[in-house]
């Protein structure tokens, strides 16, 4: 039995590596080399020892009528609720058990083991990884009542195991619960809607990805996982519909992802990629203001430039040379150097050789901070025409933009048009 579980876990490890490879490529492009190397090494080792036989016998699937997608939407709702129940169970019970006297923590695993053993006497399928039973569920070898019972008690036993301090893993239980939930939903829907053409096994397969997406909050990885297991791209639409619904339900009723929740319960605040994705992005256009001064030309006489600068409302004046390159000089410095220049000299002769870094309105505001340095302000120019000044950015404007966006930083990410 241990050997079969070990083989199953090894095969699922291969699947996980391959699925996460593509998701990691999308999210962390700079780690592509390491991810590809890990995925290839995993596949080579597993196939060398275990051969190419797949872990599950996948039933064939063909989408016949678009109305069938409603059935998978219902699976997404039920899968999202199931994943939410498991997360809420762990999030509620774990800190309360850890708050008990320290000596009780030595007995909590034993009590949890006793309760899980009692469950196993009546439903031995919930014990272990359960890959064989997942395969049976895919081939409609259980009634919907048995599938529902297995899903419910697997949630309970997994929660008991985890909160007692002896977690037995998250990957395999999520697949088991999802397969049983999907199979139960598929059986019930076939009973009431016999015109549905998708086999129960397809619902079990989609259910695996659905609960994976809602519980571990990895919707794209779960899509790739189901695609790789099935090898059938016609299943992608049901999977995406069901996964999205489950993910949104989990996100709405449990804003903090499971592993972020666990780390914070332990007093560790680790960076959350999910929360970073949801942060409100701040752009240069949110902080820039109109330029109140006069833009000088590098080829005009110094006397003319000085007169125009004195009439400017800005203490720092911009100079553009006609090619889209910008320089800047303070009016006080311009007056001082103009007094030392010969009559008829042009403004170019006293300007510093270094050009100012410029910004565009759609730059993120962090870029403005990096480029501003000790300068009083920076020009914001049009992307299509660098000679066209859209506005200016100052340190005060940047800080004001951040103050304004702070209250809504985690309420949703604003998407900019392409």
Q: Mind explaining what this structure looks like?
A:
This protein has 418 residues and is mostly helical. The protein has three domains: 1-55; 58-274, Clc chloride channel, CATH 1.10.3080; 284-407, Roll (CBS-domain). It is built from 17 helices and five strands. The chain has helices at residues 2-27, 32-50, 69-98, 108-122, 131-138, 144-163, 171-192, 200-216, 219-230, 236-253, 258-265, 273-278, 284-287, 302-310, 331-338, 365-372, 395-405, and strands at residues 296-297, 316-320, 326-330, 378-381, 389-393. The strands form two sheets. A three-stranded mixed beta sheet has the order 1-2-3. Strand 1, helix 14 and strand 2 (316-320) form a beta-alpha-beta unit. It starts with a helix and ends in a 13-residue tail after the last helix.
Walk me through the topology.
Blueprint: H1 2-27, H2 32-50, H3 69-98, H4 108-122, H5 131-138, H6 144-163, H7 171-192, H8 200-216, H9 219-230, H10 236-253, H11 258-265, H12 273-278, H13 284-287, E1 296-297, H14 302-310, E2 316-320, E3 326-330, H15 331-338, H16 365-372, E4 378-381, E5 389-393, H17 395-405
Parallel strand pairs: 1-2
Antiparallel strand pairs: 2-3, 4-5
């Amino acid at each position: 039995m241990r050997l079969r579980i070990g083989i199953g876990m090894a095969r699922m490890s291969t699947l996980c590596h391959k699925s996460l490879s593509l998701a990691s490529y999308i999210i962390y492009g700079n780690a592509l080399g390491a991810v590809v190397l890990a995925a290839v090494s995993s596949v080579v080792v597993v196939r060398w020892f275990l051969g190419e036989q797949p872990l599950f016998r996948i039933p064939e699937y063909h989408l016949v009528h678009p109305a069938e997608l409603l059935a998978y939407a219902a699976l997404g709702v039920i899968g999202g609720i199931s994943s939410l129940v498991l997360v809420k169970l762990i999030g509620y019970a774990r800190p309360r058990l850890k708050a008990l006297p320290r000596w009780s923590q030595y007995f909590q695993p034993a009590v949890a083991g006793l309760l899980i053993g009692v469950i196993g006497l009546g439903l031995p399928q919930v014990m272990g990884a359960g890959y064989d039973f997942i395969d049976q569920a895919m081939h409609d070898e259980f009634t919907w009542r048995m599938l529902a019972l297995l899903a419910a008690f697997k949630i309970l036993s997994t929660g008991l195991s985890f909160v007692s301090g002896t977690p037995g893993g998250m990957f395999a239980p999520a697949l088991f619960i999802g397969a049983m939930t999907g199979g139960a939903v598929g059986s019930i829907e076939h009973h009431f809607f016999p015109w549905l053409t998708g086999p129960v096994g397809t619902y079990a397969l989609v259910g695996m990805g659905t609960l994976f997406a809602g519980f571990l909050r990895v919707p794209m990885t779960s899509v790739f996982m189901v695609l790789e297991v099935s090898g059938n791209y016609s299943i992608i639409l049901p999977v995406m519909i069901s996964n999205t619904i489950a993910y949104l339900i989990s996100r709405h009723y449990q804003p903090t992802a499971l592993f972020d929740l666990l780390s914070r319960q332990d007093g560790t605040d680790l960076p959350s990629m999910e929360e970073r994705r949801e942060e409100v992005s701040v752009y240069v256009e949110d902080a820039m203001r109109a330029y109140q001064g006069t833009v000088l030309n590098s080829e005009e006489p110094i006397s003319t430039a000085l007169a125009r600068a004195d009439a400017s409302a800005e203490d720092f004046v911009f100079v553009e040379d006609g090619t889209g390159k910008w320089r800047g000089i303070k009016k006080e410095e311009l007056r001082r150097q103009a007094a030392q220049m010969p009559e008829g000299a042009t403004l170019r002769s006293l300007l510093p050789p270094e050009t100012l870094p410029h910004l565009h309105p759609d730059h993120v505001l962090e870029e403005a901070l990096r480029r501003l340095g000790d300068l009083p302000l920076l020009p914001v120019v049009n992307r299509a025409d660098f000679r066209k000044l859209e506005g200016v950015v100052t340190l005060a404007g940047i800080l004001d933009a951040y103050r304004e966006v702070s209250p809504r930083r985690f309420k949703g990410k604003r998407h900019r048009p392409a």
